[in-house]
Specification:
By secondary structure, this protein is mainly alpha-helical. Helix content is 82%, strand content 0%. The N and C termini lie far apart (80 Å).
């Protein structure tokens, strides 16, 4: 009787998880910091809302554009490397076979077995074998610019909407403590969820995210209070 064992690895989540966590974290921290800085400068409730909405829109577009350009550059580099490898396979098949076998020998395979493995993999799909084992390009981690841009933009917008909702609902007199407290809670939940999904210690994820969020909000509020006093 054959037993089929399927392991569920978390590496398949790396692409979308990184973009989603980065976007949501940036959305919460940057928007909360912005409204806290404006509020600390003694702005009106309406001005705080306008500044927060402007930050939400600008941040969403910035995240989308930045992620698209960054990941597209990675994709271009990967394609250039694959094209170079394709040409080398066409002009020096034996040399590429020796190169692949040397990689497997370096990983601990017996030379004879390494030669056999390299030969069989190259017969099956030479470019895929070299992309994976020589260049380190895996399908799981292949750059997808549009997907990364969309994930970052949407997650930023969702993250930024959280402190903005608090600003809209909280009385003007207690905007600063409400936004600060709830944003730290949002960050703690995000850090804990990201750590859980990624298989990392949850408390470390919570502490790491909340610490940097607290630092960013504190510094921005301090700057706002300083300029508000000077003005």
């Amino acid at each position: 009787m054959s037993v089929h064992h399927r392991e569920r690895h978390r590496t398949q989540r790396i692409g979308w998880l990184r973009a989603a966590v980065l976007g949501a974290n940036d959305g919460i921290v940057s928007t909360a910091s912005l409204v806290l800085g404006v509020a600390a400068a003694h702005a009106t409730h309406e001005s705080i809302l306008i500044a927060g909405i402007a930050g939400l829109v600008a941040g969403t577009m910035s995240m989308a554009a930045g992620e698209y350009v960054s990941v597209h550059s990675q994709a271009d580099t990967e394609q250039a490397e694959l094209e170079l490898e394709r040409k080398e396979l066409a002009t020096d098949d034996k040399g590429e076979h020796r190169e692949l076998a040397a990689i497997y020998i370096g990983r601990g395979l017996d030379p004879a077995l390494a030669q056999q493995v390299a030969k069989q993999l190259m017969v099956h799909d030479a470019l895929d074998a070299h992309a994976r084992d020589e260049l380190g390009i895996y399908d799981t981690f292949t750059a997808r610019p549009m997907l990364a841009a969309l994930a970052s933009a949407c997650s930023f917008a969702v993250g930024a909407a959280m402190p903005m909702l608090v600003v809209a609902l909280a009385p003007h007199a207690i905007v600063i403590p409400f936004v600060s407290g709830t944003s730290l809670v949002f960050l703690a939940l995000l850090g804990g969820w990201a750590a859980y999904v990624g298989g990392a210690p949850v408390m470390k994820g919570v502490m790491r995210v909340t610490f940097w969020g607290m630092l960013a909000m504190g510094l921005t509020a301090g700057v706002g209070a300083l300029f508000g006093t000077v003005a």
